[in-house]
């Protein structure tokens, strides 16, 4: 006690005033009605600045540890240089109309991601990168996607893949859809629906698909029992080389697995199928959209049936509903 009195005598007037301010500020914080001292960012800044003026601040800093003030100073230093080094350059901002169009496409098509919207914009003549489109899209839950290996790129024109997938109806019965996909331009060259898939029925689909056109050289399929003796015999008569994937390895038949996933995610998961006729009509509508409107990553953001690119002119951009409004196609129309 005596030491503090003697010390205060020899202190300068400025030091006493700074110490008094520091103590009063701490008392003000303690008066706040909280279970523990409530410190705002402006309080931290005050203590940091005062510590630069008052060299003996540690002796009058009671309610916090000295390391706390040092940590606040480091945080303020980082914030200062972050603001000072903020890059005000970068790419030019896009027009407000294009930004609104990106948001409109994302809202009209909740199943689309940045690659699909970017593909549509390319078809409308906009020179914009996919990363820019992604930055202006409304944020939503991220969905994980499936990755798969490509197969024999040098034989795409001669290769098809086949598979079945099931669909539940309103009355909880099962319908089976058989799909034949050409690896060239990812075209669905044939599909059919049945309640009772058999080996003979699957073999008949090959005749319907390739009766009036040249047969492919390779056919990729899994080891499903529906691809039995009659199916294999039909392949031999058509001179098609049968390639079976490994057991429980759907990624080896990635193209058709991907198109089945697209059919489900982009269409069938959002409708209630009434019966076989209803499913047949839905599949025809989706395949028409898939071939003529939908852009594909594997086709450099083009459609299986090539879509025209509209020049960047002053035409009005209008949306064309597809699949009852579940998806949209965008084109320019001159007035």
Strand arrangement, major sheet: 3-2-1-4-5
Q: Which topology of the largest domain does CATH recognise?
A: Nucleotidyltransferase, domain 5
Compute the CA-based radius of gyration: 34 Å
What is the typical, i.e. mean, pLDDT?
A: 82
Largest sheet: 5 strands, mixed
By CATH, the architecture of the largest domain is named 2-Layer Sandwich
- Overall geometric form: elongated
Proportion of residues in extended strands: 5-15%
* Number of spatially distinct domains: 3
CATH C-level of the largest domain? Alpha Beta
Termini gap:
91 Å
Assign the CATH superfamily of the largest domain. Ribonuclease H-like superfamily/Ribonuclease H
Strand element count: 7
Low-confidence stretches: 145-151
| Class per helix and strand makeup | alpha/beta
Tell me the number of helical segments per DSSP (H or I, 4 or more residues long).
11
SSE order, as H and E? Answer: HHHHHHHEEEHEHEHHEE
Looking at how many chains there are and whether they match, the oligomeric state comes to single chain
Helix content: 40-55%
